[in-house]
Write a structure and sequence with these properties.
Chains A, B, C, D: One of its GO terms (biological process) is L-lyxose metabolic process. 4 copies of one chain form a homotetramer. In chain A, helix 7 links the parallel strand 8 and strand 9. Chain A is built from 14 helices and 10 strands. By secondary structure, chain A is an alpha/beta fold. Chain A is globular and about 55 Å long. Chain A has a single domain, classed as TIM Barrel (Alpha-Beta Barrel). At the A-B interface, loops of A face strand 2 and strand 3 of B.
């Protein structure tokens, strides 16, 4: 148990700056009270999540949503709040030029512009000290024939190579795949196989990031996790959960057993080892729930799944598997899953100098009342869609 | 063939006013040139679709997107343009009050407000002469436990009953179902069975509308069409197409064979007979394609599928079916599907005094150049999300 | 807690006779040791499940797989073993005549034969004292056009009406729906809406049975459960679990949270009340795991989900829901789900005079070694596909 | 048009020996009249398909279903019938030893046995002159924890490497992926990415085969085809069609537009060029339709899709794509799809000395009546599941 606690104490879950702003669906964005107006306020909110959970010490930025004049100042501000800057997320989907694509666009001019933005993000990595660039492309087509599937791969490969070349020492990019949305017929990086194939060709600084909401129905995500870990190509996670499409609900809310299975493969494949370099990031849309508590709950959900995964009796499991004892092996896994780890985690938090119940502690802190009162006027942060 | 042409000549496909405005995804709405600024301009665009296809004589309105001071004047404007007002579509999903639901909201105050809007739409039916109210509810919940599934059905039933009571003679409402989005765990009218059960209890003025993009993967839509026609409960269609979720692509673009099968069941079930009262409506989002040509193409796609469905040799089909001739029966259907009906439809258009190729005719009409030049300034119509 | 235990003590989960025989996929049926050779041996195995769990007192029969000369004698045998006969399951899918359908077949002769079998099953209900007939039809078509979707509904309605008429007092039938397999284009009862519509027309003796593996991907099963309970049309469950199609894995194995949500709606809708008449049945294929332990584990999985559902703090939940507290309401539900109910259930078993751990008790009982040794020769029971 | 005909004349679609035997679902295998009793009779039936279509000159074998004492004699028999031996398909899923896997089984003994079978298949390649080995593994697990996902990849890699080493000059193997069935939780080669990654490591003699029924719902198969062609890793197709899971219906029956899109990517990527080495094979289950006509229809469906794909005006398409003309580019593709190519193909057949209508020609040939009369007694071929 001591070992488990040590691992849990070292766990590091990154929250995204955009989770603190407004988000919604194409039907409606419901604004909430106290929402940040700028990146500085987003970092302050993120610092709350870390203050109450103890395991969310970094914050991902999204460019241009988090564009500031002085990134060094922003990084300093983060440090003062007790957090650090995590991955830099690029955005090549919200300029009018990108209607038909960014790096895979038929027009060389648009591609140039998009790649330019990616290179700018590399500069921001330097300015903020971030070591990870996350690349998600909304690129794709809505209609068969709209553009040439293969030519778009050629263009994608070219852009990725240019960005790869610019990465400094100790820097990497994570390539994200997504089956659909906003493109509705074909996406240029639709699945892990596509991302993997590009990353293998580029080299060790290119890795795959698994967004848990980006798969076709029924796809076994933990298999992908196990496979990528075996190949040394799992760069990280964008955690969230879904019942249907890319619903972007709180991680663990839709299928906590799946989250446990994913974390089990992470543990089994050595992915919690800091040297494995797996980034555990949240990427969610709190459309109707309050944002800071939504992030706290999500961090706790990952933590609980991790604790259960660590509780699996690996020796017993291996023995049952070797014997072909189907029910016995399954039972070993389920024993861990069925364990209530909340007391263990409350104890851990106490040892870390935190409140046993982060949700209650935040609710009682008065922070929300404070920001709701103070953050009046200005333009609330959001996606700007 | 004469009979087929007569049926095709009488076909009536309704286009939605909102198809002429901007639309997009949660990631980005790409504005287009020449987009209408008000309902009057939307009707003008819809009239173009009718002018070139000859079978799109009505336009659905959406309240409040198409709110005007004088509906009688709007209806008059439509008549002058050669079109009429079709179904009135209610909107109880874009007010801040509706974050957790409208007619199924836990709060009686919000429910009252939502029902009030629906009753206002009945008034607009009277003012415009529309005989059909289309009800789609975004109501649902994102998280298990968020609200009580059963209580929400009670509330839904209550609201529907109130609206039903207010419907005048010769009026009806169509209840739309949708599996998910914007609610991501449970939707209050998720499937045809739910809509059907409510409509059966209410009576003959309540019918089900089938949006072709609102089903779980793999669901056989033509079965639902056949079933509802058998029950006298098919009120109409919201046509569009999808590869994944509610992609809202042009109808027939993703799976033209499915559209043909749907239209075959319509034909077989007598649904083209005007007395059947089946409304054939489009409901799409032209996110990246130009809007008016997108509607023209969609109308043509439905027309082509209808022509093929009418070409099915029903006697030969029945004979093969009765004999249990699996391949023979399938071949009869496929023979019709594989026929190129474009020459027949070109001929039909010529007989109707139209150009043989509506897409080319529109492109050559100069209409787009005109609106692109004229519609400058003002606020382009859109969803206002 | 006393109340919860009382409810759990009264719970009644029916196991199916065919779960004790061999089963498999189209690729291979792997025979296992000790498998029963006749219905008497199947009942003996089922009695073991009840002996160790205390809540599986009845066994469903499948005709003709469980055809015997003297059903009264079989029922007497069951009573001696401490169990009773549950639902009678009809089979109109394994005769060569049924290749293109049974009650919906184009040929009146085949339909007559199929309906005759269903009526024979009603006779067997009388002979065995069973009050429930379960109707599953493999009927459907593989190719568009193969047969007429609507005519098949007419034929289905006719057969159901005939069977319904023959049901004695206190008897009922449950109509099962299934999206696909073995029919691969259209199934004649594909979804709950279809089953519901037929049952409503027939009357109170016709109810819907929910097989948890028979839905399209993403369908919210607990919504259907809640809806059918509200309508008084939920006749029962065929429990199993699946990741993909109708995988027929052990219930609760693929998505234990879903099973909990289903049981919560059962509890909330009064479905555990014996007067509600909801039959809780297992319907699984133990293709690779040993059959008796597979059933014991499945019964325990349903029991654990039920215990968690009963632990939900309904008052706190209602309060949070009424306030629109999204995270709070979800948390109330999750608190119950995250509770480890195994100690409670062990205690309950002890109070019922059972071993605390049914799996271990069965494993230590020597029963398997006994049947493996004794059941040599003869024809092992299976589906006979 | 001359060029198109030349390409179509050279097309080569391989039929599988097992399509001529009985097949079915886990619920029932319906036997048909005239079904072959041995590999020699299967080849005779396959020769009929070639005789009437002119483009199905080879037949895939399945070991052990097509095990014979003298493969050279079988190959000679095939030549006399006017056909050749195509791919050799291994079977490591029907021995009792393979209940928990074959090459990924926890037991080294079972893995040895399975690999031994694969090597035996390489020997049969030599004996028959086949240059292609097709590897499909049913390997996988039904329950989380049942076995170690990663260890199974290690074992798979080891077995593949051993087989790869044994391949002679000019020989290759095709690795098939499948999402699920008969394994229902995790499959060891679930998707193209997994197959691709293994093949890349092995070398040029290992390629991926795309079975069109083996994907999750919504997966864009033509994207995979385009991607693998770009990488030089598309070894071939197992054609069939599906509405739900691996339904194994006739190719083109469920979604003819998808088949066209796939064939378009084949054409666009140079996959029809014999030097590309893409094998076009059918892999279907004619559960209810007659087998030989089922194969003829399937060959014709692929041929029709190919003809349409060849009709695409590539220059016009490229021009529209380059301009970002969404509707225009889509229209170019649809123009080809909407063309009725049956007259062209009838003409082609006439030029090839064949009847214009293969289905009618076969029906009128008396072959079925002959085999139905002659093939009485003996054991009909089937899967032996």
């Amino acid at each position: 148990m001591t070992d488990i606690k040590a691992v849990l104490r070292a766990q590091h879950i990154e929250t995204p700056s955009w989770a603190y702003g407004n988000s919604g669906t194409r039907f409606k964005v419901f604004a909430q009270k106290g929402v940040p107006r700028d990146p500085y306020e987003k970092l302050a909110d993120a610092a709350q999540v870390h203050a109450h959970t103890g395991i969310a010490p970094t914050v991902a930025l999204h460019i241009p949503w988090d564009k500031v004049d002085d990134y060094a100042d922003l990084a300093r501000h983060a440090r003062e709040l007790g957090v650090g800057i995590g991955a830099i997320n690029s955005n090549v989907f919200q300029d009018d030029d990108y209607m038909l694509g960014s790096v895979t666009h038929p027009s060389a001019r648009v591609r140039r512009k998009a790649t330019g933005h990616l290179l700018e993000c590399v500069d921001i990595m330097d300015a903020t000290g971030s070591d990870t660039l996350k690349l998600w492309f909304s690129d794709g087509i809505n209609y068969p024939g709209q553009d040439d599937l293969r030519a778009r791969q050629d263009r994608l490969a070219e852009a990725l190579a240019e960005v790869y070349e610019r990465l400094g020492d100790g820097r990497r990019f994570l390539l994200e795949y997504k089956l659909f949305e906003p493109a509705f017929y074909a996406t240029d990086v639709p699945d892990w196989g596509t991302a993997y194939a590009h990353c293998v060709k580029l080299g060790p600084k290119a890795q795959v990031v698994v967004d848990t909401g980006h798969h076709a129905p029924g796809v076994n995500i933990e298999f992908i996790v196990a496979f990528l870990l075996r190949e040394g190509k799992l760069g990280g996670f964008d955690f969230n959960s879904r019942f249907y499409a890319d619903d972007d609900l709180m991680v663990g809310a839709a299928d906590p057993f799946q989250l446990f299975r994913i974390m089990y493969e992470v543990v089994r494949g050595g992915g919690l080892d800091p040297e494995a370099g797996v980034a555990f990031m949240l990427d969610q849309c709190h459309n109707i729930e309050p944002k800071i508590p939504g992030q706290i709950r999500s961090v706790m959900n990952v933590q609980e799944a991790t604790a259960k995964a660590l509780l699996v009796d690996r020796d017993a499991l291996s023995a049952s598997q070797a014997e072909g004892d189907v029910l016995g092996a399954n039972a070993v896994l389920m024993d861990a899953y069925n364990t209530d780890v909340r007391p263990l985690l409350a104890e851990l938090r106490e040892e870390m100098g935190l409140a046993r119940d982060p949700m209650a502690a935040y609710a009682g802190s008065g922070y929300f009342e404070k920001i709701a009162a103070e953050r009046v006027g200005g333009q609330q942060a959001g996606w700007g869609a």
